[in-house]
């Protein structure tokens, strides 16, 4: 059975999580196993730049939840990366995640990712072109460095203030084709 690991970089419950949960439902309907990792619920320390250790030991010495996440990454067949757009970049949580996976590159394990697939999604309140910049940072910089083929990427527009409506992304009228767009993303990864 195909295994997709979905990584959500939002610091709160909101649009990003609503999208990732909808994708999980669609993947399940297609018989694909999907595990969601909400970075806000994990203890992820910042990279300390201790290259004197990781370059020689080929592992990270920081003890937190990243070792478990990286184990899951090695076992996954594909990834869905989702982040809100913060100044045309992913969130700090997502950036800390990216920085910590550098150990894959240092240890020569990035080749493990050549046969996996990725979908990148970002959600922003402003113009789609600004959110596209966030998508491209993850897709063109991170995924490319990891040797991870990006099979689809998409920006969605949402409201910043949800006022308790966690389905706003589906109800706000800003993404009239969101259901079809999500289905296309699923079809690209499976």
Describe the structure.
With 190 residues, the protein is an alpha/beta fold. The protein has one domain: 3-Layer(aba) Sandwich (Rossmann fold). The protein is built from eight helices and five strands. The chain has helices at residues 15-29, 51-57, 66-75, 92-100, 102-106, 128-145, 168-171, 178-189, and strands spanning 3-8, 33-38, 78-84, 117-124, 150-157. Strand 1, helix 1 and strand 2 (33-38) form a beta-alpha-beta unit. It is globular and about 50 Å long. The chain starts with a strand and ends with a helix.
| Termini gap | 11 Å
CATH names the topology as Rossmann fold
CATH architecture: 3-Layer(aba) Sandwich
Mean pLDDT: 93
Largest pleated sheet? 5 strands, parallel
Rg over C-alpha atoms, rounded to the nearest angstrom: 16 Å
CATH class: Alpha Beta
Helix count equals 8
Share in helix = 40-55%
> How many individual β-strands?
5
SSE arrangement, N to C: EHEHHEHHEHEHH
Q: In what order do the strands lie side by side in the largest sheet?
A: 2-1-3-4-5
| CATH-level-4 superfamily name | Flavodoxin domain
Q: What would the principal axes of the Cα set say about the shape?
A: globular
- Are there runs of 5+ residues with pLDDT below 50, and where? none
Total domain units: 1
Query: What portion of residues belong to β-strands?
Result: 15-25%
Structural class estimated from helices and strands: alpha/beta
Secondary structure layout:
Layout: E1 3-8, H1 15-29, E2 33-38, H2 51-57, H3 66-75, E3 78-84, H4 92-100, H5 102-106, E4 117-124, H6 128-145, E5 150-157, H7 168-171, H8 178-189
Parallel strand pairs: 1-2, 1-3, 3-4, 4-5
